Amino acid sequence: MGVKLPPIEKIHEAYSAIADKRVVLKENEAEVSSSDLTKTYMVKWKDEVYSSNDNASYWQGYIGYPIIAVLMLQGKLPLNQEIAMYFQGINWKKINTEYKNKFSEAVSQIMGGLKEKGIDCNKIEGEIQKVYQEIGRLTIQTKRSSIRPPK
Question: What pTM was estimated for this model as a whole?
Fold first, then answer.
């Protein structure tokens, strides 16, 4: 049994966290700062069991962007640094609020902006799809964090 698949747009957010260097890996845990830097999430793992106190992981039961980013940095999911750089400096909190958490609409706006700059969005989407397929193949387990999400 793999993990509960997140909305694919969480991969874009994970790329942002990596590009902005908001993921601090430690021995069996990581601190991941939110895009607006107002919250810090704790991702913990032991063996192949992961937990995080971000809202998606805690309340929705799918792996949120903090766990995805950690798995990318650990080499358990593909990480294309070039693609990550396209998502540098994006305030996902603001954009997701603006689009009332309709993540696909938020990502469409961002991808539209990249396309206007002449960036090959097909290549980006191909990488995102690759990561998403690998999430479906993960053999890790997730459990609910013992720490509530920060308010």
Answer: 0.96
